[in-house]
Amino acid sequence: MKKISPEQAEGIFRKVLDSLRGLKTAMKLGKLQLPPGIKQHITALDSMGTSLKFLGNNHALLQGSKEKLQGAVSGIQSLQQSLDNAAQIEQYIKV
């Protein structure tokens, strides 16, 4: 077993903690950049988003439900961001 100095150990842990802080900050700001191929595609979520966009573009079909539609679109975007964050954390843990 190789012995390391306290300074070396502190450097190792500092890098890990800085990396975790960066991940946490990016998540809070909604600016996580997923590597290609990591972003999850969920067909049902995509279909719901497309349907809601269709309804948003066809106001006559809504008849007073515009606020509910905007809330649903916002909810889907929030869910997608949460799933992307989870994928990023999973990727971080694997590395």
How would you characterize this protein structure?
With 95 residues, the chain is mainly α. The protein has two domains: 1-31; 35-94. The chain is built from three helices and no strands. The protein has helices at 6-29, 43-57, 66-94. Helix 2 (43-57) runs antiparallel to helix 3 (66-94). The protein is elongated and about 70 Å long. The mean pLDDT is 80.
End-to-end Cα distance, whole Å, is 23 Å
Question: Which consecutive residue ranges, at least 5 long each, have pLDDT under 50?
Answer: none
Q: Count helical runs.
A: 3
Sequence of secondary-structure elements: HHH
Provide the helix percentage: over 70%
> In terms of structural class, how would the helical and strand content be classed?
mainly alpha
Mean pLDDT across every amino acid position = 80
* Beta content: under 5%
Largest sheet: none
What's the domain count?
2
Gross morphology: elongated
Q: Write down the Rg.
A: 21 Å
Q: What's the total count of β strands?
A: 0
List keywords for this structure.
single chain, 95 residues, mainly alpha, 2 domains, 3 helices, 0% strand
Outline the secondary-structure elements.
Layout lengths: L5 H24 L13 H15 L8 H29 L1
Helix pairs in contact: 2-3
Summarize the structure.
This protein is mainly alpha-helical and 95 residues long.
